[in-house]
Amino acid sequence: MAKTISAGRTPKFLIERVDGDLSLVGWDGEDALIKADEEALRVEQSDEQVTINCADDLSMRVPKGASIFVQSVSGDVSMRGVLGAIELKEIEGDLSLRDVESVSVGTLQADLSLRSARGNVFVKKAQGDVAIRDVQGHVTLESVADDLVLRDVRGDVTANVAEDVVFYLNPQAGRNYTIHAGDDILLVLPPQANATLTMTADEIDLDWKNGVQLEEGATSGVVTLGNGSAQITLNAGCDIRVSNELEAGESAGDFGNFAGMGVDWSGNNDWSDMGARISRQVAQATKRAAESGRRAEEAGRRVEEAGRRAAERVQAAQKRVEERINRKINIGVGRWNWDVSPKGAPMPPAKPQASDEERRAILKMLQEKKITAEDADKLLAALEGDA
After folding, report:
1. Which of 84, 110, 136 delimits the end of a domain?
2. d(CA 181, CA 165)
3. Does residue 328 fall inside a structural domain?
4. What CA–CA distance (Å, rounded) separates 232 from 47?
5. Could you report the per-residue pLDDT of 139-190, keeping only the tens digit for each?
6. What pTM was estimated for this model as a whole?
7. How many angstroms separate the CA atoms of 249 and 187, rounded?
8. Taking the CB of residue 278, how many other CB atoms lie within 10 A of it?
């Protein structure tokens, strides 16, 4: 069922409960389009506030300026192109956000993927991986249970992560970036970065080409890069690596658990080219998957053709045996009923004949593939008394 309501340019949507997946896209205009099963959907409107409950999947198109408040979703959530405030309390599936304003997330039971936010991003608790890219405001992640990938954040960053962190950062003067990780941290900065790094870990690896060094085997230290105008604090349960080369990621799998984070580290030193390189990798992976699917289809067709040919061979063998049985029955009847010996000459003894029941038993064994066509011939010959 599709339901259209007039909501104005900046409506407020209160989505109390969705028992399936939620898909929400912002569009131009003042109408909202709501799609769901008619029996599962309940919509109430009061002035500019629309309250929605849905016992199944819910798909919505809303004015771009809409504000969204979501209390509970049992499945996945996808939102794109919404420029009002977004607040989500409890999401049991994955959360995907694209081209939004400000975002606040309470508890997320799975993964978060966010790209392009004009305002601030706040996450209280994420039970899976988090990947965030291109945020104009501040990023605050109070608890991330798995890994974190951050890139292109203009505001302050505060993150507490149970496992590994990869942080691509172009530090801004006066900004503060604080990362606490249970395992490893990989920080990649541009060669001309201006920042003061305060670091604590089991081991710190400073891979910096401009002569900046840290005592080998150091577990803590303060390093000033350029004029030191940004403040970066890193605290890792295992190791920290800081580099001014994009190629630093090529050995990230040896340094920490970054190989399994789904990030393409290959490429050159052009920071602006990273998005294009990731897109190429995705396209290549898609092409490989399509090629694998084509080969699987061809193999399936070959198996089907082989099965067809085998069935034809079995049917041909069955036909030959049936013809042989019929031929023996006809000849046997002629020999059995007519005496063609000369008058007074002793009649040659009649050959024993297989009964119809015995022939049917042999044919059944052939059909069930318990014997071959050659075995069937031999059995019939023995029953008929043939040599």
Report:
1. 110
2. 7
3. yes
4. 47
5. 999 999 999 999 999 999 999 999 999 999 999 999 999 999 999 999 999 9
6. 0.66
7. 10
8. 17
